[in-house]
Amino acid sequence: MSERTFYRLLKKNLTVRIRCGDCTEAMTLDNFYKENRHGLDKLSECVFCFGGYDWKRGEKRRRSNWTHMIECLKSFVKRNRIRETPAETPHEMPICGNPCRKPRLRHRDMCGRVKDRASEYMGFYERVFE
Q1: What is the rounded distance in angstroms from the CA atom of residue 70 to the CA atom of residue 77?
Q2: What's the confidence (pLDDT) of residue 3?
Q3: Torsions phi, psi for 32 (to 5 deg)
Q4: Residue 119 to residues 7, 75, 114, 115, 123: CA-CA distances in angstroms?
Q5: CB 10 within 8 A of CB 33
Q6: pTM
Q7: Tens of pLDDT, residues 73-112
Q8: Helix or strand (DSSP H, E) at 27
Q9: Where are the domains of the chain?
């Protein structure tokens, strides 16, 4: 594995939202790689394992160091990625043949009052109340 592979993989994952392993702050991988260096004094320490692996001065371009950085980047993204959980929607109950679940039509024209036929003929009944 090479330097080109590392930077290609880094570029592919720059917009991935991650949570820092030390401070648990949410950020993109780009912000983490450029700005978030907890306790790393030298540039010869691996950013993704927080200084757990370092190389001698001038040996960054060695194949073994790039291999470590690529594997460490892959595991870091896999371990610290913020995964969006889909919102759970309540399941709708299916309407079956039970009359309790079927909508019943209720006549609301009189709202419980009894219509008097005699007052209708006499003109006392007003349709405003219907």
Answers
A1: 11
A2: 81
A3: -65, -45
A4: 91, 86, 11, 9, 6
A5: yes
A6: 0.56
A7: 888 888 888 877 776 766 666 566 665 655 666 656 666 6
A8: strand 26-28
A9: 3-80
